[in-house]
Amino acid sequence: MSLLRRRLAKQSVNSRILFQILADRSFSTVKFPPGRRSTTEFDQLIYKAGSSGDFETVRRLLTSRVAHGCFNTSDTFKFLTNTASYSSALEDLRRVLPQIDGRFTRKNAYDILIARLCKLGRVEDALIVIGDMSSGRFSLTPSTFHPILCALARKNKIEEGWRVVESMRSNSIPVDITSYNYFLTSHCYDGDVEEASEVMRKIEKDGISPDARSYDALVLGVCRAGKVEAAMAMLRRMEEDGVNVLYSTHAHVIAGIVEEGYYALGVEFVLAYAGRDLRLDAESFGSLAGKLMKKKRFEEAKIVLKEMVMRGLRMGDDIEGIL
């Protein structure tokens, strides 16, 4: 038994020596730090390796970080920027990513790269990377497409977005509610209730249940369209149906009420929901007070601020001085 222990101990020592040799090989521009490693450390090491063009080290770091419980972040590919070296860096990443060990590790790296490309405004390149994943059968999922749909929706490139949706379907990737919500939010932000309704019909046709974000977008849309009464009715319906109401949904209604000049109704609205959720109270009362002051409706603002004092709600310095 003691002989077995000595053998295992020797193998363990040899493994550590081998790992150190691999880490210190001359082709690597990055030295692995001793001891436990953090997510930030890995991001910094990848930044250094990617910036120096050492993409074999980038690959090894991407492979080993997940084994250490350090998953990729939005900073993982920060070295990839809109500079003269962008094209060559992207090509090198496309070369080494398929060589990453581990199905989950490889997919996660691809997903983070696509998100980075979209942040840089390189949607076409993100779609090329999607093509790499498809041809390599590297586990395409709806979340892989989310950054692309989000980027296109924000730029109001709706038709291009729907073409991406068709691409998802052609790859047998289900279109989830998050994917639809990007279109819904884009239309509702513009107050285009008719187009938003069309998206809702597609959601229903696919047999998908709207979520809190879907309803939040719809409330925003009717408020932007000047239909505050409809927004308040929708909010009540959400509560009756047991839908989780986001804080932002209340904020949309408050903004719509004030914008339409229903100042007294705004006060009634926040009072009607007061006492249920302390954070909601702080945000709703504070938001209404600030908007009323911008409209120079100081009397209504004083009522709201007095309620905040009575309820022990914190108020900003910009609105406290009115009392």
UniProtKB/TrEMBL annotation:
Q: Which UniProt keywords apply?
A: Repeat
Respond yes or no to whether keyword Cell membrane is given for this record: no
Superkingdom per UniProt? Eukaryota
Any matching Pfam family: PPR_2
Q: Where are the PPR repeats?
A: 141-175, 176-210, 211-245, 281-315
Belongs to which family? Belongs to the PPR family. P subfamily.
Q: What is this protein called?
A: Pentatricopeptide repeat-containing protein
Tell me what organism the protein belongs to. Cardamine amara subsp. amara
